[in-house]
Amino acid sequence: EVQLVESGGGLVQPGGSLRLSCTASGLTFTTNWINWVRQAPGKGPEWVAAMGPDEDQKGYVDSVRGRFIISRDNAKNSLYLQMDSLRVDDTGIYYCARDQGYFTFDHWGQGTLVTVSP
Amino acid sequence: QSALTQPPSASGSPGRSVTISCTGTSSDVGASEYVSWYQQHPGKAPKLIIFEVNKRPSGVPDRFSGSKSGNTASLTVSGLQAEDEADYYCSSRGGNVFGTGTKVTVL
Fold first, then answer.
1. Does the pLDDT of residue B80 top 90, yes or no?
2. How far is CA B32 from CA A49, B36, B93, in A?
3. What are the tens digits of pLDDT across the range A4-47?
4. Backbone phi, then psi, for A52, in 5-degree steps?
5. What is the distance in angstroms between the Cα of B92 and the nearest Cα belonging to chain A?
6. Using a CB-CB distance cutoff of 8 angstroms, which residues of chain A are in contact with residue B46?
7. CB A12 within 8 A of CB A86
8. Residue B1 pLDDT
């Protein structure tokens, strides 16, 4: 059974940093596209970033490019999202999700809440 | 890329059907056979219920069906049950975008 577990969320002031983690069981990051998808309160999901089987395969939504960095530790089967220069509109639940292909997310974690507030 | 447009709410009585629309553009929904639908209950993560316009993952009841015409995709829930009350979101490759969401109420 596939399980994705996120951690690392919290309350941070604008301009601050957080590092989110996603640990997987039942799948390996080296053979899958794993994504970060966030959801602001009362809004629909928004794709944030992705990493493919090759660590050079990365992508970001325009609004976070240059501020967020996605990385991976294969030995720990863990994916990370380093978030710097956080803004109020980065607030939301951040989910780790597996893309089964063609922007179709079949496995999701439970999410971790990020709150950016003065 | 703008979010796909969905009606904010839809409702139906138990046993009846409800259809939700998802309108995009010729660059996303209109250009893609990779439209998905997700069901989300309060406090839970989204759950994939339709992919590639009209395919259902294993375990999803056949009461859920999808279709697409031009720039608009649709999700139909037939034989509404109380547990179908949830938020529903569409998504499309070719834009990497999700919909605005529709809250389905079972009357």
1. yes
2. 21, 10, 6
3. 999 999 999 999 999 999 999 999 999 999 999 999 999 999 99
4. -95, -175
5. 7
6. 45, 95, 105, 108
7. yes
8. 74
